[in-house]
Design goal:
Two copies of one chain form a homodimer. Chain A is α/β, with parallel strands linked by helices. Chain A has helices at residues 21-34, 46-53, 57-62, 78-85, 90-99, 112-123, 158-176, 197-209, 224-227, 237-262, 266-274, 276-285, 312-327, 330-341; strands at 8-13, 38-44, 63-67, 105-108, 133-140, 143-148, 182-186, 215-220, 232-234, 294-297, 302-305. Chain A has two domains: 1-123, Isopropylmalate Dehydrogenase (3-Layer(aba) Sandwich); 133-293 and 329-352, 3-Layer(aba) Sandwich (Isopropylmalate Dehydrogenase), CATH 3.40.718.10. In chain A, strands 3-2-1-4-11-10-5-6-9-7-8 form an eleven-stranded mixed beta sheet, sandwiched between helices. In chain A, strand 1 (8-13), helix 1 and strand 2 form a beta-alpha-beta unit. Chains A and B meet through helix 9, helix 10, helix 11 and helix 12 of A and helix 9, helix 10, helix 11 and helix 12 of B.
Chain lengths: 352, 352
Amino acid sequence: MSNNAKTITIALDVMGGDAGPSVVLAGAEISRRRYPELRFILHGEADAVLPELEKYDRLKSESVFHPCEMSIAMDDKPSQALRHGRRVSGMWKALESVKSDEADVMISAGNTGALMAMSRFCLRMMPGIERPALAAVWPNLQGESIVLDVGATIGADAEALVDYALMGSAMARALFDLDRPRVGLLNIGVEEVKGLEEIRSAGARLREINLPGMDYRGFVEGDDLGRGGVDVVVTEGFTGNIALKSAEGTAKQVGAYLRDAMSRTLMAKIGYLFAKQAFNQLRVKMDPRKVNGAVFLGLNGVVIKSHGGTDAEGFASAIDVGHNMIRNGLQQKIANDLEETRFGEVEPTGDK
Amino acid sequence: MSNNAKTITIALDVMGGDAGPSVVLAGAEISRRRYPELRFILHGEADAVLPELEKYDRLKSESVFHPCEMSIAMDDKPSQALRHGRRVSGMWKALESVKSDEADVMISAGNTGALMAMSRFCLRMMPGIERPALAAVWPNLQGESIVLDVGATIGADAEALVDYALMGSAMARALFDLDRPRVGLLNIGVEEVKGLEEIRSAGARLREINLPGMDYRGFVEGDDLGRGGVDVVVTEGFTGNIALKSAEGTAKQVGAYLRDAMSRTLMAKIGYLFAKQAFNQLRVKMDPRKVNGAVFLGLNGVVIKSHGGTDAEGFASAIDVGHNMIRNGLQQKIANDLEETRFGEVEPTGDK
């Protein structure tokens, strides 16, 4: 519920994440200072949330707190979470805030599988969308791209990949302010002959529908993720998750090599001191907290997943993503695109 | 054909790769100096190979040259390559050198799909192995691991994944001199409940067979590739290829960030000069040429794929891998493992 045109209301699963309230509330405080138009609905267990909330006068006065009975554990299976946490957990109740239009977006650093299961159950999918996709913002040498699905579901077929392309390009228009984002399908070769049948079919279909709001550029490969060149990279969730974590792991690995190299000799240490500012800039550039906040696309409502292990700064980034998505009308953009494509169902055509 | 116990004979597809003879022969020359026991059988078109070979007296005198009629192009489809290049191309003839036991190993920087198709056709699979796997050596924070399949085939089922684990651990024993390499299955969650059915089945089967030469450690995730912790990472080829290229792309991306940061300010430039040696060590550590040379496993013969765009130093690394594989009896190790596991066929069991 927005009291004036500018207010954006965010429902938070305050108990979610490795640290829970201490990180979530500190993150909300950072975002509140950045965007005064933000308001929060806080869902969590009173014992854990209220003492922590006392630290932030302004946040407290501008937020609504809804106590809940229980919380979803980070290692609960999705089915367990649904069975025990439906209607009573903070995660569920935060989703209900979006469903009832009290909030514009829901953010959780909790259990990903549980969040996805509950989101589908509580908010339901947008008409015509079969499965949600988790879309991450991926930094590359030319800027940033949106990569989806990074692990919401596994085994996407051609139709699902086409949906991902539509939703991803809507998100790119909302987040990067582009008219016609370039979209690529992740594959293991750029020639049309290579790769899996569903990817070829999706590619053929995307060429065929040739949407005004999407510039389909064909196949891209794993190394294009870091190189850049397209604004949206579409892939099945298992592969997308492996690619994302493989890249994160490599970035950490190179960072560790670099720290090691810079501390080995006296000359290197002196060099490090001179170049310290440059190294700091590099650290900021590679800070994984900056790109925290993946968006579940395809639901009737915006749901954002923060890394469970992030800190306040990282959680604030996830809130920023939510803020941007609402400010730029993500859901409406997706709905428009779907309507434009769907004279009947999308039927994946065969190869070529 | 080994004239004495130590000689290792390598059949080269001299026309393969972006540069062909100039890189392949220069690479062979580097390896020959490193390992005097190497002998080469050179397959290629006379016009292209012989003038280049004139540059290397010793290599020329210690090698056998077999002229061929034609070469496989880097962009030929595998079916085209087989149709036109079977029996007549340098790639095929180099494989025949292995088949006839003239050579111990075949190395090509040519078209991957063609090389795989021709290898299967010419050498055939080992008994009981259905599909080849391409195994890459992957540097990580604790050393190196073997990752397979990085793109030989797509859509591995549980049985194929078990085969990959067997072959990968045999390769780890040959290459890293380990008694019981630690093996992990790449998945998108470490809990037994997650991931694809075939990965779960393969995991259950690997626990069950509990081989003396393999220490199955369960699931690993994408970020474990850079972190290390297991010696062999097993995955289906599509995902493995995306993971490999995603990591390569990220390493390049971070390298580019670093170069950029070090050239921005005078202080950074001064720091760079002091730390130059450290940066050089880092460059050597991250040099992709050092880990060039992926091994096709499961064939009746050792076939090594070099990057098409590598230089002489990189091609020499691929030859080194071949040298190590033969010196350490890779094929025999794989054959022993297969025999040990196969009382009848491997039947993937269900989950749990």
